[in-house]
Amino acid sequence: MTTTLAPARPEAAAARATFAALAAREMRRFVLNPLFLAAAGLTAYLLWSGQRSTVTEIDSVDAIAATLFGGLGMMAAFWLTRSMRASEPVVGVTPTTLPARTAALCAVAIVPFGCGCLALLWFVHLYPVSEPVYGAFSPPARIAVLVGQIVVPALGGPLLGVALGRWVRFPGAALVLFLLLSGWINLVTWLTLVHPDSAPVAVLRLFAPFALFTLHSDAGVTAWRGSPWFFLGWQLALCAIAVLVALLRGAEGRTRSRIIRALGIALAAAAIMLVLAGTGGFTHAVTT
Amino acid sequence: MMTGPVLRAGAWPAVVGVTGVAVVVGGCAAAFPAAATMLLPICFALLAAAAAFTLDEPASLIVDVTPTTPARRTTIRAIALLAPLAAGALVMLAAAMRGLVLPWAAAGLALAGNVLLGFAAACVARTRTGEPGAAAGTAVVLALMTPALVPQVARWVRTFPAPRAGGPSPDTVWWTVLAVCVVAIAISVGGRRLPRWMSRVP
Predict the structure, then answer these.
(1) Is there a contact between A15 and A100 (Cβ–Cβ < 8 Å)?
(2) Which residue of B has its CA nearest to A187?
(3) Chain A positions in Cβ-Cβ contact with residue B34 (cut-off 8 Å)
(4) Distance of CA B24 to the CA centre of its chain
(5) pLDDT 10s per residue in chain A (288 long)?
(6) Alpha helices in A131-172 (DSSP H)
């Protein structure tokens, strides 16, 4: 047994070292991307300037961080992934496999995730969870809403960009997807305004990587149907699906079958979480 | 005689594909008139992105050294702008037939401005790269979506003539954009290079 395992150890250590070096390199490229720098700068400015104005509901403010870190982060990660296509004939013959390089690219999502965590802390400092702007949600649910609207989109956007970059050849795919998702979120939010108590409409609203949970009107702040906790689970399942789909490109043999099996589990988990998110929480819209 | 081959070499899958997505979004706007003021600006931004792909030339290393001038090539490729413009007009017609009430002249101006902005960005970027579509399209889409992303900008600039929306008229913005785009296109097809500080198009 010792003779079998002993040669594997240096290989595993070398693979880890290669992965760390690749991940550090990709992270540096991501951080220096103009889109990510713009996202970080704009989020900081908008949160800072938000201190000076009156906020009547949180959704008008926290969507900014999701759009910037998630949306622009997706475009930046897509560019980063595609930028190596031209050198693929050279890079492809190196001992590092495509899934290993994809995993290193996925690791860059740690940066916007960290920025999202910082944005969340700043946001909670500016608008404490005890304030009425969060609507009828309980304090833990309010935290879940914020994590789902600020932190997880910042993690998922770049992961989606990597998956898109690995599978789609069209260079404008990220910007088209960004606009499509914006259109879809606007459309289902409008549907929710028309049918606030409908369960299918709630499922449709949550069938997106980002969703609004409250609305301000003259009557007060309305908390819509849906469970923020299960929505968080749905978003994390989407992140896992994005990583697995990205890793599937170029995977061979046992690795490929393992990824496909994990993808099946993640898809099932996502479907369950979406149904629970749409049917859980309040059974109707609650205005406070 | 050159028109056919130059047009054939265009990035038609990209132009038609993005225009098709824009028609789907615009179709949703026509189907749900109450959501149209949110969806039509996204449809127009997609048409601007489609316009940015009209100048993509994968064989630019060869094409750029042929005797055909950039002005001639750009003029021929500008015919492809008819696709996003026609799609936008179709969407507006469908929305009007579904009973959507909008200042249609201002909406038409916004459509023309969006498409020309995408094309002008591609013209400027084309002086440095053979396939400017992705970079120019991303820059234009981000510029067009800025009022939606940054509330402070929305107080000063409106890019879509939504009824009952406060703030300045988008017509002023679009007339200015049209004038700037015409100048930018004229300079870029005239063979001028980018400003010295802009060493390359990202």
Answers:
(1) yes
(2) B35
(3) 190, 194
(4) 17
(5) 455 555 556 777 888 888 899 999 999 999 999 999 999 998 888 888 766 666 666 666 677 888 889 999 999 999 999 987 777 777 777 778 888 999 999 999 999 999 999 999 988 888 888 887 788 888 899 999 999 999 999 999 999 999 999 999 899 999 999 999 999 998 999 999 888 888 899 999 999 999 988 888 777 788 888 899 999 999 999 999 999 999 999 888 899 999 999 999 999 999 999 999 998 888 888 887
(6) 139-146, 152-167
CB of B42 within 8 Å of a chain A CB? The answer is yes
Q: How far apart are CA B32 and CA A197, in angstroms?
A: 19
Looking up tokens 């702007």, which residue turns up? A133
Q: Do B138 and A174 touch (CB under 8 A)?
A: yes
How many alpha carbons fall within 13 Å on the CB side of residue B85? 15
CB A104 within 8 A of CB A22: yes
Q: How far is A5 from chain B (nearest CA, A)?
A: 48
Which residues of chain A neighbour B18 with C-beta distances below 8 Å?
172, 176
C-alpha B111/C-alpha B43 separation (Å) is 9
What ipTM was assigned to the predicted interfaces of this complex?
A: 0.85
**Residues B15 and B50 sit within 8 Å (Cβ to Cβ):** yes
Q: Does B37 touch chain A (CB under 8 A)?
A: no
8 A C-beta contact, residue A166 and residue A103: no
Instruction: Confirm if B179 and B115 have CB atoms less than 8 A apart.
Output: no
Residue from the list A49, A172, A194 with its beta carbon closest to the beta carbon of B137: A172
Q: Does B36 touch chain A (CB under 8 A)?
A: no
Instruction: Please report, for chain A, the start and end positions of each structural domain, with discontinuous segments joined by +.
Output: 2-287
What is the spatial distance between Cα B85 and Cα A138, in angstroms, rounded to a whole number? 49
Q: Is A42's Cβ below 8 Å from some Cβ in B?
A: yes
**A31, burial (CB in 10 Å: exposed 0-12, middle 13-18, buried 19+):** middle
B191 and chain A: CB distance < 8 Å anywhere? no
Contacts of A68 in chain B (CB under 8 A): 149
Q: How far apart are CA A141 and CA A211, in angstroms?
A: 14
- Residue A225: exposed, middle, or buried by beta-carbon count in 10 A (0-12, 13-18, 19+)? buried
Return the ∠ at Cα A28 (arms to A154 and A94), rounded to 5°: 110
Enter the tokens of residue A96: 């590092």
